[in-house]
Amino acid sequence: MSTTNSLAPQRAEPSFAEFFTPKLITVLREGYTLGNLRADAIAGLTVAIVALPLSMAIAIASGAPPAAGLYTAIIGGFLVSALGGSRFQIGGPAGAFIVLVATTVQLHGLDGLILATILSGLILIAVGFLRLGTYIKFIPYPVTVGFTAGIAVIIAASQIKEFFGLTLAGPEPGPFLEKLPVLWQALPSLDPASLGLALATMAVILGLKRLSPNAPGMLVAVVGAGAAVALFDLPVATIGSRFGGIPDSLPLPSLPAPDLAKVMAVLPSAVAFALLGSIESLLSAVVADGMTGRRHRSNCELVGQGVANIASGLFGGFCVTGTIARTATNVRAGAHGPVAGMLHSLFLLLFVLVAAPLARFIPLACLAGVLLVVAWNMFERQAFATLLRVSRGDAAVLLATFLLTVFRDLTEAIIVGFALGSVLFIHRMSKTTAIDTHTPFVAEDRADDANGERQPYDEADAADPNVVVYRISGVFFFGAAASIGAVLDRISDTHRALVIDFAAVPFVDSTAAHTIEGLVRKATRRGVRVFLTGTSHDLRKDLFAHGIKPPLVRYEETIARALAMVNQPA
Fold first, then answer.
1. Would you say residue 98 has pLDDT above 70?
2. Model pTM?
3. Which H or E run includes 471?
4. What parts of the sequence cross the membrane (predicted)?
């Protein structure tokens, strides 16, 4: 029996440079023209107009000063574009982080938030260099829809106080179920001016989106509300009255005081920032790929995000990630490459340097209206309804993730949702793996002559009651190993040979290989010869690694060949 070695050329493993070269370098190597710069400048300005009110609103909702949101978008956003693995990614503070950031501020203060942000950057760099970015994208779709919808509900609930201008007797509780009764009790303190500004903000944003989709609705609404406060001296809470305005320059970088106890205390928050940041940024990169036909480098993207988070923390910002809405805006605005994202950060810096004093007039009720529109857009209503309708399993994963996000904890929701989704997938996959007593034909993808047709064995071979032939089809993995092992284990001492056909098995894992090994050793003790047929080179390599090799078993190319060898001496 001869063997043939394949001499077909194989593509070499991508080099380190191929994995981790930022897309900015790739774009510049292609040739960067004045026309490209013009396109990137227009796109960068467009995104900056969107990012300006959002960055401050997200920071305030997170329990941080509005300037921290701007620093995050300026420093972190610049580095995400300069060092990341996506041509069009726009980095900055994201609504998805509001819950985590607010919890971290409540537990550890602003210095703890900065420390957690820097640690999350180190974690992201490690995850990227370990090339784990590919696996992060395997988060099930019902999980992403569920936690995004849950975050949207929490964001909306967090803005009720400012939206209605309520006055609370004490601090606002963080947990959802504790927050609602406190807000309800404070309802008599409703401020009509705050409510009017919030409603007007939402009306302007939604109205301009319908009438002129390309108009910067959020910026128009915020500028209009700020002008109304300044002109009519409305008695509402503003950035100036609550925070004293925003600085007109960037702070000097500073490193939090080294404190091992503090590091250990904020480490869970840092891990949560890294997990959510990697999911959010890679989803954003995938969206950009779908809109442009390009392909991002996921591990390079995570390394860039890590560096951006470290720098953001050093400059007084907090966790930065790729933002889906702003990235999509960047693509629609005609961006050519990462320079657009870098310019978006420079435009925001220009605002801080020139127009910072005007920010003190922006009413918090207006920013609450902005975030309620963001929350409404985050809640993927059609996807949520579809997942509830099409599958009970997906509905269970979706609802578990959604409810745990709202009532418990975001990290816990993602872990539980991922675990449920994985169990559901394993259950479905196990049903696709089957074993049957093989009708005596040549394996479907192997002809026993040159005409490519299946040929029946001789009836004498087919009628041998002392030879058992089983065929396994599908992926042979731990989810199916127990049931298939139980079938294979039914061979009796009276059988002379067992033939197991792997022609329809693309892959075996260690659990399946261990099952086969136990079966083979048991059969050998009973004097039953075992033949394995139809195994590919990779499959044979895995089985050999688990000790399933001659003389314990005999490998043959086809079932026909194995049956012909049964009567020959071992």
1. yes
2. 0.74
3. strand 467-473
4. 41-61, 67-83, 90-107, 113-132, 139-160, 182-206, 218-243, 263-287, 307-325, 345-376, 397-426, 468-488
